[in-house]
Amino acid sequence: MNSEAGISLHKEKIWTRDFVLICLSNFFIFLGFQMTLPTIPLFIEKLGGNDQLIGAVVGIFTFSALLVRSYAGHALETKGRKFVYLTGLFIFVIAVGSYGFLPTIAFLFFMRVIQGVGWGFSTTASGTIASDLIPAKRRGEGMGYYGLSGNIALAFGPSLGLTLAGIISFEQLFLICAVLGLAALILSSKIKYKQVEQIKQPEVKKKWDVYEKSALVPSMLLFFITVTFGGIATFLPLFTAQKNITGIQLYFLVFALALMASRTFAGRIYDKKGHVAVFLPGAVLIMSAMFLLSWLPNTTVLLIAAVLYGIGFGSVQPALQAWAIEKSPKHRRGMANATFFSSFDLGVGIGAMLFGQIGHLFGYHTIYQTAAISVSISIVLYLILLVKQRQK
Q1: Average pLDDT, the chain
Q2: I need a surface site. Which of 7, 95, 312, 325 has the fewest CB within 10 A?
Q3: Neighbours of 156 (CB within 10 A)
Q4: Taking a C-beta distance cutoff of 8 angstroms, is the pair 60, 108 a contact?
Q5: Distance between CA atoms of 313 and 286, rounded to whole angstroms?
Q6: What is d(CA 372, CA 1) in angstroms, rounded to the nearest whole number?
Q7: Is 203 inside a domain boundary?
């Protein structure tokens, strides 16, 4: 009886050696990535680019990631988690390390495409690896903890990147980001992938597709949420500078801390009560943050928006990811993650490109009004879904 209880307890354990390694690897790759988010627009400005070019360079990264995610999802099931993850990390390191040595925006545009390929491979793989390692009954909680590794990077990455951009050259900054990616590559090589790869089901006839049907609903909802992310990460530093509002570095720190705090309880709420108890409150907080950013009279409002956005996004994103994974067959988790992150990429990419045009034509404040409308669409779609489910 005691031995059976011990086995059951062991199966429910989240913090295994491999889970710690995937979280650490995820932290370093996200830290390198987050340091580039607010600094690439500044680098493009240095190269002579305007808001429209900034939106295009940022957006093309996410679209290239989107294009490779379906292949990455299939490769996870056919070539294994290790191959896909390490390949993606290697490509990311090479691309980011080259940024500071590129003489023109055209070259930067091309290397952003290459980085997107690496990002699409690595993030699709890491989310799948994490979901493999987490007990099914604690998936919401476990994905929340896994997400914390990226959130901790987010707490320091943008602020660190902006600080370093004022002290060292862009060449040195991007090399540091590449070294962080290299650290992720080394850590990920230590993960024992054998058990993860054994979940493949060779009896199932393989056919090429580009999405996992069971993950479409949460992925669609995520798309309208992550449109907001493109507007914040790309244009908020420029917007605050235009309005002579200080605190943009503190904004990213406060946002990330609020997001981290929400991860500690949102996943457990999801496991106990489902997405209905997490999605709507989180989406309302995100929409409120967008309205505050469109107003933005001072630093205090900026930081309040950071708290609301952090709690909202930190609640919604892992809940939707857990929803997408748990509804998919075990041998289709790779494609479920590919579908989920494809919608993330598409939202950020469309947001960056669309908001580049909107900011150029109507001003930065209009970006966040449009983002609030996008969140409201997600809320309406979710309510329609609930009504249809209750009518069945």
Answers
A1: 85
A2: 7
A3: 16
A4: no
A5: 7
A6: 55
A7: no
What are the distances in angstroms from CA 255 to CA 47, 73, 133, 296, 326? Answer: 29, 31, 28, 16, 28
Can you tell me the distance from the alpha carbon of 48 to that of 44, in angstroms, rounded to the nearest whole number? 6
Helix axes 216-242, 333-362, angle to 10 degrees: 30
With tokens 């490109």, the residue in question is 353
Rounded distance, CA 200 to CA 136, Å? 17
Owner of token pair 């907001």: 228
Number of domains in the chain: 1
- 38 within some domain: yes
The CATH code of the domain that includes 384 is 1.20.1250.20
Task: Tell me if 271 sits within 8 A of 217, measured CB to CB.
Answer: no
- Alpha carbon separation from 352 to 96, 198, 237 (Å, rounded): 19, 39, 14
- Assigned domain for 223 exists: yes
Under DSSP, is residue 244 helix (H, G, I), strand (E, B) or coil?
coil
Amino acid 45 reads: E
Question: Does a structural domain hold residue 199?
Answer: no
| Distance in angstroms (rounded) separating the CA atoms of residues 292 and 309 | 10
Given a contact cutoff of 8 angstroms between Cβ atoms, the answer to whether 188 and 123 are in contact is no
- Please state, in angstroms and rounded to a whole number, the distance separating the CA atoms of residues 259 and 279: 14
pTM: 0.75
Distance CA 14, CA 282 (A): 25
- Provide the domain limits for residue 366: 14-193+210-391
Per residue in 280-316, pLDDT (tens digit) is: 999 999 999 999 999 999 999 999 999 999 999 989 9
Number of other CB atoms surrounding residue 79 within 10 Å? 14
Tokens for 193? Answer: 């992938």
Q: What is the DSSP letter of 48?
A: T
CA distances from 35 to 10, 170, 296, 348 (A): 37, 11, 24, 17
Phi–psi pair at 283, nearest 5 degrees: -65, -40
Count of other CB atoms within 10 angstroms of residue 257:
18
326 vs 217: CA distance, rounded Å: 13
At 19-52, the pLDDT tens digits run 999 999 999 999 999 899 888 988 988 888 888 8
The model's pLDDT over 199-231, given as tens digits with 9 standing for 90+, comes to: 444 444 455 566 788 889 999 999 999 999 877
Which of 183, 231, 244, 205 minimizes the C-alpha distance to 332? 205
N-terminal to C-terminal alpha carbon distance within the chain:
42
